Amino acid sequence: MEYPEDDKILRQLVDPVDLEAFRNLMANAHAMGKSAAEMIREEPGLTSRPRIRQLCLKDKGKFIWAQLRRFFRNFGRTWPDHRRMHGEAFN
């Protein structure tokens, strides 16, 4: 699978520490089937490198959608399953 956005960000990094950090992020993200940029948009705190964060969060629309996806994913995990809590009452 290719991640052109990650390649574009990688080409813009010049600091060796940023390059290494982003390559590590890419390896982890690609193993999960997503781009490193997408992963940073969902969880900006995953990197302490300001330049990486700046490049990943550059597209505000993608950032907002990533935050909405994160919110609803977390909301689904915390919402109680009333059928299990109340037995057969809801079946």
Describe what this molecule looks like in 3D:
The chain is mostly helical and 91 residues long. Helices cover 68% and strands 0% of the residues. The chain has 6 helices and no strands. α2 (16-31) crosses α3 (36-42). The longest helix has 19 residues, at 60-78. The mean pLDDT is 84.
Please outline the helices and strands:
Layout: H1 4-12, H2 16-31, H3 36-42, H4 50-56, H5 60-78, H6 82-85
Quick structural overview:
This protein has 91 residues and is mostly helical. Helix content is 68%, strand content 0%. It contains 6 helices and no strands.
Question: Keywords for this structure?
Answer:
single chain; 91 residues; 6 helices; mainly alpha
Termini separation = 42 Å
What is the beta-strand fraction? under 5%
Structural class: mainly alpha
Q: How many E-type strands?
A: 0
Which regions contain 5 or more consecutive residues with pLDDT less than 50?
Answer: none
Give a quick account of the main beta sheet: strands, pairing sense, barrel closure. none
Oligomer: single chain
Helix content: 55-70%
State the order of secondary-structure elements, H for helix, E for strand: HHHHHH
Radius of gyration, rounded?
18 Å
Mean pLDDT: 84
Rough shape? elongated
How many helices? The count is 6
